[in-house]
Amino acid sequence: MTTKMFGERVPRVEDARLVTGNGRFLDDLGHDALEAGFVRSPQAHARIVDIDVTDALDVDGLVAIYTHEDLEGRMGERLPLLIPHPTLTHGRTPYALAKEEVNHVGEAVVMVVATSRYVAEDICDRVRVSYEALPAVVGVEAARAAAHLVHDDVPGNVAAVMVQRTGDADAAVDAAPHRLELDLAIERSASTPLEGKGVLARWDADDRSLLVHTSTQTSTSVRQAIAAKLDLPVDRVEVVTPDVGGGFGVKIVHPWPEEVLVPWAARRLGRPVKWTEDRREHFVSSAHERGQLHEVRVGYDDDGRLLGLSVRFWHDNGAYVPYGLIVPIITSTQLLGPYKPGVYRVEFTSLYTNTVIVTPYRGAGRPQGCFVMERVMDAIAADLGLDRTVVRERNFIRPDEMPYDQGLVFQDGRQLVYDSGDFPASLAKLKALVGWDDFEALREQARGEGRRVGIGLACYVEGTGVGPYEGGHIRVETDGTVVVSTGLTSQGQGHQTMLAQIVADELGVPFERIQVTTGDTRRFKYAVGTFASRTAVMSGSAVALTARTVRQKALSIAAQALEADVEDLEVVDGLVQVKGSGGGSTARIELGTVAVLSNPLRYAFDEAAARATQFAAPADPDTPPVGPGESPGLEGTDYYSPARSTFANGMHAVVVETDPDTAEITILRYCVVHDCGTLVNPMIVEGQIHGGVAQGVGGALYERMEYAPDGQLVNASFMDFLMPYATEVPTIEIDHLVTPSPLNPLGVKGAGEAGVIPGSAAIASAIEDAEGITITSMPISPSQLFELRRAREGRP
Amino acid sequence: MSVDLVRVSFTVNGSPYDLELDPRRLLSDALRHDLRLTGTHVGCEHGVCGACTILVDDAPMRSCLIFAVSLDGAAITTTEGLQSSDGGMGPVQRAFHECHALQCGFCTPGFVTTVTAYLRDHPSPSPEDAREAIAGNLCRCTGYQNIVAAVQRAADLVTEGATGACVAPGTEEPT
User: Fold this and answer.
1) SS3 category, A601
2) Residue A450 gets which letter from DSSP?
3) Would you call B104 and A729 a contact, using CB atoms and an 8 Å cutoff?
4) What is the value of ipTM here, to two decimals?
5) Using an 8 Å Cβ cutoff, are A102 and A43 in contact?
6) Which has fewest Cβ within 10 Å: A97, A606, A755, B32?
């Protein structure tokens, strides 16, 4: 009997190579390649007056120096706007190397190629770029005021204004018996994977082809982008994603300037070229997220039920918008969470600033939306004197209302229709897990000890598994090895393990015989990428469907060989056998042998092949060896493409203690109830939640991008940008609720981003509860809490 | 500009090396690119993240902050040197695997070396001590919870050999 793998805590197959130092990350490759360095703008907004390379020319090891003037053809044009939208009326993207003007500190101006990175940086230091400074626009307020413009041809610094509504929300608010207005803010943070970006390109001049390795979340699309920029046929470009040291969103953006410049230079120089991003480069030239200001009007009845919700917010998109409006679109739709908002209207304005670009970071606009909605729920509860869980419960979409159409268009251009979830059940689990109803006794006890504690909660719904599609390819080798590939990439989520678990069950083969490859365009050409918690849903479903196809093919070949009926056969532990025979029957055949039989051969290149040659395996001499509709090889390809996203959900509760003197904030307990549908590997899902919660804690209490008014990012190092260490992350208590998605063959809903989404909302709720001070802006530091206390006491 | 190379001899994972290096060459780069021991990773190049932690004469140090030529005569250990004698996972590495204490694995070699040194002096840490022991290393994937569990599991594996399993805190079974 084959052991069922789906749903089991299977240890990861990725680990052995990673813990022993045998992983292969980008900078572990190409030791002999030339290395690139970049001269980056030290100014937030300036015209480039002159670039003088005279001092750099006598450095030993110099190979090339490039500026925008060197970029011929499409390389000299702007990088693509990846996700256009009708409301993105003023979309602007950067050049691979700045042309005439720079728009943020860190923008690449000059590319240097040298024999080593050390030499490349020596040369960068000797390149003199003269700038004429222009006024910098930093922060949402400055962008909105538009006293200065980031781009001369973008009036008001406005990239886009977008409105969605289900009716006249302001009229509904005005007519409601109770009304509140809130101003809410979230500051900038960033994905900050431990490994930055990196690119290695090898040009084969004889073959006129490129092999590119890049630390990306989408190798197939990088391939298309490189081919387009370098004016190469797509089939002359292959892109491989090696082990990737974390992504969290930032590596879905593409092509980064370096992703086209490094291959371009490799072809031009006829030598391998590599670039490995350093930490400061990552801070000032990758991407940030989260910075938004929100104004909310809400109307509700005496029971706290929402009647109307009107939200306006301003999104700081940084200097350019290559990734379009995905983040604010997600905020504007996912803000609704598990609730029925009454009549809803949302309007956002996406604004340019002279800062690093803004693209999705794990959660992608949801943490802001969740913060807004959950602050509203807490404010209503406070206004009406109701328990915070009661207000939420009264506004929940009920399980019998699923699927539930929120009446909006989601980030994938499809209707925002929730497929599943049982929010009252999740809340009941959370209350039990954290001991919500017993908290007042704990508060009193703490108060007696001179301590100040508070409890908070936050609920969210997360659209996951967005389309358009992913695919899978499975081939059974003649030795019984099962080779699986899917086009999307991995950044540490354990895809090799998770996908192998699915294939093991669907195909009926031992887990150990399965080898999974992700993100290698030599193996799989068609894919979208790894983002939006979509791998289990999309590639999981795709490999499941593919495994079923291959299984069917194996059964029909085996049926011929065993002279049995297909209907009577099953695949168990890599053997095709008569159902119910328990493996005792002689009428069985290994999948590897089926693979041999599937490929009629003339030449015996090994022992297995010898069994399939024309004289060894005589078949009906009057029918073609490969019949109509058949193909050689025990393999198959299939795709999964859903009509709409799945919607995972969850609820977090937090207990905090605030120091009465120092205002230090300590998390005492962190509880999670999580519903991502069926779980392929609970161990991996919990790991995803742990990591997400840690980033949520970081975003709530520690992490912020400190921009000076002149556009300098003053905390661009790990010494000053405070990512949580083990001592800052609490023990996370998890309970699962499983409401399977009806949309895909596995019932899965995606889990990658969930943990981070409600962090700021839940922690703000708990601090507010502890302090009795309304929290309207996150993250919050002890100093800021101290100032809020002083303000409450009327002290300056 | 030409550079005077400096001669340096040290051992890495027990193997002797005799190198001529640019005096400014960082130990992390020498290990990774000259010796091609790429298990040691570089996450920040300013000594904060701990991914590049290696053992110098059994003491954990940040290889991104050390000039390779300054280690003449030293015995250096990287995560490659902490495998079991048969080339499989060593006890600390195995504990990380069993406890799901890594995801992308980029920071992991720095944790493995740090924990190895820690357990030598603290063979049976409490959960609180285990958490403190790893508080100088950044991980962006795991939230540290399973790494704390791995420190304790590694203590078991180092001292008494292999029995039992990783005990992960804070989890209810799905319903």
Assistant:
1) strand
2) T
3) no
4) 0.96
5) yes
6) A606
Range of the domain at B32: 6-81
CA A84 to CA A754: how far, in whole Å? 26
In A641-729, beta strands by DSSP E: 646-658, 665-675
A-chain CB neighbours of B79 within 8 Å are 19-21
Cβ atoms of residues A96 and A261 within 8 Å = yes
User: What's the pLDDT tens digit per position in A551-560?
Assistant: 999 999 999 8
Question: In CATH, what number is assigned to the domain containing residue B106?
Answer: 1.10.150.120
Cβ contact A771:A789 at 8 Å:
yes
Q: State CA A581 to chain mean position distance.
A: 46
The secondary structure of residue A596, as a DSSP letter, is: H
Q: Which residues of B touch A687 (CB under 8 A)?
A: 100, 103, 141-143, 146
Work out the average pLDDT over A327-341. Answer: 97
Q: Determine the angle formed by the axes of helices A782-792 and A759-771, rounding to 10 degrees.
A: 40
How far apart CA A697 and CA B143 sit, in angstroms, is 10
Instruction: Kindly state whether B142 is in contact with chain A, defined as any CB-CB distance less than 8 angstroms.
Output: yes
Return all residues near A45 (Cβ < 8 A) that are at least 6 apart: A101, A102, A103, A104, A133, A134, A135, A136, A137, A150, A354, A711
Domain tally, chain B: 2
> Average pLDDT, stretch A422-445?
98
Could you tell me if B30 and A14 are in contact, meaning their C-beta atoms sit under 8 angstroms apart? no
Mean pLDDT, rounded, for A377-391: 98
The answer on B63 and B111 residing in a single domain is no
Do B89 and B77 lie in a common domain? no
DSSP H helical segments within A5-66, as ranges?
Answer: 15-19
A686, two tokens: 């919990």
- Quick one: average pLDDT of A38-57? 98
Tell which of B104, B114, B173 to mutate to test the A interface (max A CBs under 10 Å): B104
User: Are A21 and B141 within 8 A, CB to CB?
Assistant: no
- Beta-sheet strand order (sheet of B75-77): B15-21, B6-12, B75-77, B53-56, B59-62
pLDDT digits (tens, 9 = 90+) for A625-675: 888 888 999 999 999 999 999 999 999 999 999 999 999 999 999 999 999
**Best A15, A191, A244 residue to mutate vs chain B (most B CBs within 10 Å):** A15
This prediction's pTM: 0.96
CB contact under 8 A, A246 and B104: yes
Alpha-carbon radius of gyration of chain B: 17
The beta-carbon neighbor of B80 closest among A21, A118, A687 is A21
Minimum-distance CB partner of B48 among A244, A695, A718: A718
Residue type, A290: R
pLDDT interval class at B175 (50, 70, 90): very low
CA distance to A54, A215, A719, B136, B140, per residue, from A704 (Å) = 39, 25, 13, 20, 16
Q: How far is CA A727 from CA A221, A694, B127, B170, in A?
A: 39, 11, 12, 17
**Type and span of the H or E element at A388:** helix A388-395
CATH number for B71 = 3.10.20.30
CA A71 to chain centre: 32
Domains in chain A, please, with CATH?
33-134+191-285 (3.90.1170.50), 363-464+643-792 (3.30.365.10), 468-598+633-640 (3.30.365.10)
Residue A286 backbone phi and psi in degrees, to 5: -100, -115
Tokens of B139: 């991980």
